[in-house]
Each structure stands twice: as C-alpha cells, then as structure tokens.
Specification:
Distance between the termini: 13 Å
Strand order of the largest sheet: 2-4-5-7-6
Helix content: 40-55%
Strand content: 15-25%
Protein name: histidine kinase
Bound molecules: adenosine-5'-diphosphate
Low-confidence stretches: 252-262
Length: 262
C-alpha cells in the first residue's frame, strides 16, 4: 500500500509537470506547423530538394504534436466514464484490431472464460490498457512468438494477498496478457511502471504505457501485477472488481485467516 501511494504521488507530480510543459509546447508547435503550411503555399512549386526539407520538417512537427497529445492525455488523468463491461467482448474486439498490427510470426490466442462476470469500467480506457499491454508483448518478441490474452473469474478471498494488492477481498475479473518474449530483468521490472521509464529506442517508446495502465487500473479500484522471466516471457495480470448486477446473489466470501503477524 505504501508502494502504491509512492507510485500515485510520483504520477501526480509528473502529470502536473508534463501537463504544463506539453501545453506550452503544443502552442509553439502550432506556430511551427502553421508557418510551414504558409511557406508551402507561398512557394507554390518548390524544387524537389526544398520540398523534401519542408516535408521532413512538417513530418517531425506533426509527430511531436501527436506525442504532446499523448502527454496531455496522460497528465489530464481523463475522467472515467464507467459502464457495465463484458471483458470477453472487449478482448475479442481488441484482438481483431491487433491482428492488423502484429507480424505473421506472432501467434495471437485468446482464452475467454465462460460465464465471465462483468466489470464496471471505462470501456475505452480498458481497451487502451489491453492495446498497451499487447503492443509491449509484441515489442518483446521481435523474432515472433505467442501472444495470449486470457480472461478468468477470480476470487481474491485471502485477506493477506488482498492487502498486499491494495484492494479489498472479493470477486474480480482477471485479464492476463502473456508473451513468450525477452522477459524483464529485475531492474527493469522494478521500474516498469514508472512514468517515462523505457528501454526502447528513441521514437519507439515513451515509457508511458505501463504507468497509464497502472493509473487506470488503480482508478478503477483494481490491481495490476507483472510476472516475468528472462528469455521466457512476461505475463501482466489485471484485476478489476466484479460488477454486481441486479439479480446477482452476493456470494458469501469464504473467511480467510488473517496472518498472525506482519
Ligand atoms: P514503453 O513501451 O513506451 O517503453 P512502458 O511503460 O509500456 O513504456 O514499458 C516500460 C518498459 O517496460 C519497456 O520499455 C520495457 O523495457 C519493459 N516492458 C514492458 N512490457 C514488457 C514485456 N511484455 N516484455 C518485456 N519488457 C517489457
């Protein structure tokens, strides 16, 4: 729980900082892009070389603008719009999207639990969590491998693990994204959720993927955990509280013995 507090405070601080910078930066970029467009129009029919320089500048400016958009979205801690969500359907839809963006040498599998409980979450945010995790999985398998997305009903009935997870014991829907990729060293794993931590080359990674995942899952009263082994692969498990719907009988939780001592 202390770790979680530390993490949220860190994210809040980074969020405020990036929010301010991204905002100013965005305004300056608008000037650059506007001037380039004007220059383009004024020149009419420039030589191929001049055209190439202008296109390159425009391309760079547009990509920076896309990055600042992501930073702004990150710092804004977008308000959630929770709905009753069928995670199986969301996973199925996301996998359809994914099929277009993964190489032929990555095999994508989904293992969807029957009778899966529903969750109360923002479907767009949850979809972006799944995409973030899947893109990381893909990036960890440059030579191909298996990407599996699995759903499961999960009873977290042991008070001790629940406290460890920073959630109350209860019923959760688990979504696990696994890859057979490079895995993480303990050092990388310790920092993986930190905003701006990335091991990817400049332009490929922002280091915001997992911290966004973390922020969203915590906002949804859930939990996220990484299991990783070097050279074998990584599994990221996301737990979201079950949504109790009208007509559902609350299930009595088996009483777990609290551990005698901390
Ligand atoms: P980014 O993907 O932009 O680098 P993330 O916050 O999503 O940012 O991830 C941070 C770092 O965690 C990555 O750069 C990578 O080193 C590591 N990582 C995340 N997911 C995986 C994975 N599935 N396999 C191996 N390493 C991973």
């Amino acid at each position: 729980a202390e770790e979680q507090l530390r993490q949220s405070q860190k994210m809040e601080a980074v969020g405020q900082l990036t929010g301010g910078i991204a905002h100013d930066y965005n305004n300056m970029l608008a000037v650059v892009i506007g001037s380039l467009e004007l220059l383009n129009r004024k020149l009419g029919d420039p030589s191929p070389l001049v055209k190439r320089y202008i296109d390159a500048a425009m391309d760079g400016a547009r990509r920076s603008a896309a990055l600042t958009q992501r930073l702004l979205a990150f710092s804004r801690q977008q308000p959630l719009n929770p709905q009753i969500v069928d995670a199986n359907r969301l996973v199925a839809e996301t996998s359809e999207l994914l099929r277009h963006s993964i190489d032929a040498n990555v095999r994508l599998e989904t293992v969807l639990a029957g009778g899966l409980w529903r969750v109360h979450a923002d479907p767009n945010q949850l979809a972006s969590v799944l995409l973030n995790l899947a893109v990381n999985a893909r990036d960890a398998m440059p030579d191909g491998g298996r990407l599996t997305i699995e759903t499961q009903n999960f009873y977290l009935d042991d008070a001790y693990s629940a406290a460890n997870f920073g959630v109350s014991p209860g019923q959760f829907v688990m979504i696990a994204v696994s890859d057979s990729g490079t895995g993480m060293t303990p050092e990388v794993m310790a920092k993986a959720f930190d905003p701006f931590f990335t091991t990817k080359e400049v332009g490929k990674g922002t280091g915001l993927g997992l911290s966004q995942v973390y922020g969203f899952i915590r906002q949804s009263c859930g939990h996220v955990k990484i299991y990783s082994e070097l050279e074998r692969g990584t599994t990221v498990k996301v737990y979201l509280p079950r949504m109790l719907e009208q007509g559902d009988l609350p299930v009595a939780m088996p009483r777990a013995e609290a551990p005698a001592a901390e």
